[in-house]
Amino acid sequence: xxxxxxxxxxxxxxxxxxxxxxxxxxxxxxxxxxxxxxxxxxxxxxxxxxxxxxxxxxxxxxxxxxxxxxxxxxxxxxxxxxxxxxxxxxxxxxxxxxxxxxxxxxxxxxxxxxxxxxxxxxxxxxxxxxxxxxxxxxxxxxxxxxxxxxxxxxxxxxxxxxxxxxxxxxxxxxxxxxxxxxxxxxxxxxxxxxxxxxxxxxxxx
Amino acid sequence: xxxxxxxxxxxxxxxxxxxxxxxxxxxxxxxxxxxxxxxxxxxxxxxxxxxxxxxxxxxxxxxxxxxxxxxxxxxxxxxxxxxxxxxxxxxxxxxxxxxxxxxxxxxxxxxxxxxxxxxxxxxxxxxxxxxxxxxxxxxxxxxxxxxxxxxxxxxxxxxxxxxxxxxxxxxxxxxxxxxxxxxxxxxxxxxxx
Lengths: 205, 193
Fold this sequence. Notes:
The complex is a heterodimer. By secondary structure, chain A is mainly alpha-helical.
């Protein structure tokens, strides 16, 4: 630390402290004030600072301006930071971007899978109903009345249920009576010896 | 021997603790963003750009958290990433940097009203705002390196070794920038009063 010429006026720049122990009115230079703010002051200058009110006031003034800057700017940035999202804004870009996209695609596909058949299933019924054609396989429970007029053109719900039951019974009977044997299907029974002959011929070839 | 082993174990535990801290992105952002945002904002003078750079900083840190060895504090590490991003930005916008900054300049005019009221009176808060604005105005006249080390020392309260590590400058260079910055800020604050 340079201890040059005396500085009787603490507000005059470019002066330095000389023989601080001999003359307490020789004040710290600007460089020494900076050193004080940076915590780099030597022992002699520190002693002077403790004893000299004008020098202590100059350091305190600068220190206080810096402290105010620190607290005001932190208040500003805390306020501003509080309005921003936390890590959610980063996480999808970091790791979850691809899995999230796949999950969303899968959800959409599932949703379409659930909604599309229902929509397709309902569409012919509506168009048939509009055309005055009764839907053969539609049950009364699936027909949603609109505008408070239940089953337009289809009679009462009981009649509709009865017709449905009759139709289902007829289908069951038809299925039971249907041919299930090869002969009933018009196929000739294959003799066992014909099979073995055919097999032997294949082996010879 | 035992002491060396203990020290190694302590360092290992600290590194593991830090690694888990870096894994929690929400906690990382919550803890460090206000200070990092302040550092970036007052380094470049543009609030909107500072938000973007701070966001990039956390993204970069989170993606590169495996490379963090625990040699320095998380704050120093994040600040060093921010310094690099600011330098990149300054290189990209060399000529229109401060002109652009004027459009979305950092305005701390009303920030003093957010200071804890139990700590200061309304008059003291007005005075604090004025002093902070004087320092902010002085900051704009500094060179980028001077401003960086000044903010690190007097806003982030980092010591010289941490500043040297974050800026990758020799300590003597840091000291030189710091003394010049302080001299400039002090003279401007003095002339403003």
